[in-house]
Amino acid sequence: MTQPTAIRRVPGSGRGSLSDHLDTALHLAAGGLPVLPLRRGKVPFGNCSACRHSVCGDRPHMKAAGPCLCPAPCHAWAAATTDPHVLTSPSWATAWRQAVAVAYHPGGAGLTVVDLDDEAAIEWARQSLPPARTVPTTRGEHWIYQGTTRSVNGVRPGVDIKSTMAYARWLGPGTGTVTELPDVVCALTVKDTSPARPTAHAVSVPAPAGGGACPHRTPAYLERGIAMAEQRITEARSAIHTTVYRTFLAVLSTHGRCGCLTDAHVARLFTAAQAKGESTRHCTDAWVNARTALGM
């Protein structure tokens, strides 16, 4: 899918006066980005009286095309539109007068936003993710990729994924190139499907044999990746099982196909997980399921 023109060139930063918000929204919509107004608190407008308490049937609407045809900017991300007639309609006029910002639906434009909330998260992205279109935020950065995935908050400390069924605040076009959504981001959004209890027999889990082109810029790139994975597991204070599984997914998606990942690296990850209370069999199950999820 071709990236929206709005991501490549749009005047303004989205931080202007209230009277600028509709103009910004119309520019974005003309470039192919579905937009909606945000009210005080930088959140979507609540449902109107006709849609309150889901009497309009908005629950199906939130999952897919549904029966609610409310002309007001109801239903959060599902209200996002590129239609200038809707954006300038009387039913949206009150919302624009009260708006404090403009948001957009990344998934509706075939995009994914990796929301990095602090310096530590930004440093993780620089070490673990390929380059992307970068937009400064109040506390961190948005990294924008071409492609869609599930939207999940808190996939790791300070990192949210915003794509389908989510909205992101428009803070300007940013700099850099919108590149293809990497597997490591998709892996972070995958729910833990490994069993709650270990299987009866342990399974040998040598490192993947690889065979693909090596993307590592230097040997230190792999070492940093393993060290950050160990740190992520070690610092987890809750949902240890899920953290271990997602960390295995992230490591395999980034380092598992070129043959550089060794048995020693795998052992380091298992050791970190076992120090948090995971059994060897449980680690084995999570590793095997992670490889299966990535088709390895």
Description:
The structure is a single chain. With 296 residues, the chain is an alpha+beta fold. It has helices at residues 5-8, 20-30, 58-63, 84-87, 90-98, 119-128, 183-188, 219-235, 240-255, 263-275, 280-293, and strands spanning 35-39, 43-44, 101-104, 111-116, 133-136, 141-146, 152-156, 159-162, 168-169, 179-180. The strands form 2 sheets. Strands 4, 5, 6, 7, 8 and 10 form a 6-stranded mixed sheet that branches. Strands 2-1-3-9 form a 4-stranded antiparallel sheet. Helix 8 runs antiparallel to helix 9 (240-255), helix 8 packs parallel to helix 10 and helix 9 (240-255) crosses helix 11. The longest helix has 17 residues, at 219-235. Residues 10-18, 60-66 and 196-204 have low confidence and may be disordered.
Structural class given helices, strands, pairing?
alpha+beta
Radius of gyration: 21 Å
Per the principal axes of the C-alpha atoms, what is the gross shape? elongated
User: Mean of the pLDDT scores?
Assistant: 81
Q: Say how many strands there are.
A: 10
Query: Level of helix content?
Result: 25-40%
Task: Describe the sheet with the most strands.
Answer: 6 strands, mixed
In DSSP terms, counting alpha (H) and pi (I) runs of 4 or more, how many helices? 11
Helix-strand topology string: HHEEHHHEEHEEEEEEHHHHH
- Determine the strand fraction and express it as a percent band: 5-15%
Q: What is the CA–CA distance across the termini?
A: 26 Å
Uncertain segments: 10-18, 60-66, 196-204
